[in-house]
Amino acid sequence: MASQLSDPLFIGATEADLTNWKSYYWIYIFASLIGFSTTIAEPSLIAVAIKADEVSGGTINPWGLRITVAIGVAFALALGTFRIVTGTPLFIYIMGGYIIVIIQTFFAPKKLIALAYDSGGVTTSTVTVPIVAALGLGLSSAVPGRNSAIDGFGLIAFASLFPIITVLGYAQIMSIKTRFINKKIQKDAI
User: Fold this and answer.
1) Chain mean position to CA 97
2) What are 2-55's pLDDT values in tens digits?
3) Where would I find the H helices in 87-154?
4) Most C-beta atoms within 10 A of its C-beta, which of 23, 47, 139, 142?
């Protein structure tokens, strides 16, 4: 599929355009859709989402958690395929992502940090890994100037990292929203 989506005839590109990252927009869209759909179907994530709902007494919506994680994987795979197309080093993205995770960890609600980290881990299981690995290897072999052994791997690291960012981000947004609502309720009570 990556070969077909990066074919010059499909993307309407000349040989000179094949080095332009903008020519591969179908790949980015396809990767994000694959990331979202495989994550929603991931059995390990379904199990964690159900267990999180049970443990939290219903405050963590299983579908909300699954969609939040799926959005993270969708973004991760779009960014990961961009990395493959441009040939930029993997460590730059991974280091940047973990710096964001470390900063978010200090500001996120403490009760949800472990769930966020686990969400990143369970995302890369039986459904996601084979499809994501095939996408990375296929794309790196189809893009001129890329090496499958060097550029083809790393998408799974992206798929593990970005769900942590999205779950922590969602927890932070909900925490701020809850504080704002509580302040408004207190103000109205006075």
Assistant:
1) 11
2) 666 666 666 666 665 666 667 778 888 989 999 999 999 999 999 999 999 898
3) 90-107, 113-122, 128-142, 148-151
4) 139
Residue 41's SS3 state is coil
Assigned token pair, 129: 């890994």
pLDDT at residue 189 in the model: 78
**Among 31, 40, 44, which residue's Cα sits nearest to residue 125?**
44
Q: By the 8 A CB rule, do 119 and 164 touch?
A: yes
Phi and psi based region of residue 127 (left: phi greater than 0; alpha: psi -120 to 50; beta: remaining): alpha
Q: Summarize pLDDT for 96-137 with one digit per residue, the tens.
A: 999 999 999 999 988 889 999 998 888 888 888 888 888 888
Take residue 149 and report the two structure tokens written for it. Answer: 């052994």
Radius of gyration of the chain (CA): 19
- The two tokens of residue 168 are 């922590």
Structure tokens that stand for 155 in this block: 């998408």
- Compute CA distances 166 → 69, 159, 177, whole Å: 7, 11, 16
Give the per-residue pLDDT at 95. 95
The angle that helices 90-107 and 62-86 make with each other, rounded to 10 degrees, is: 150
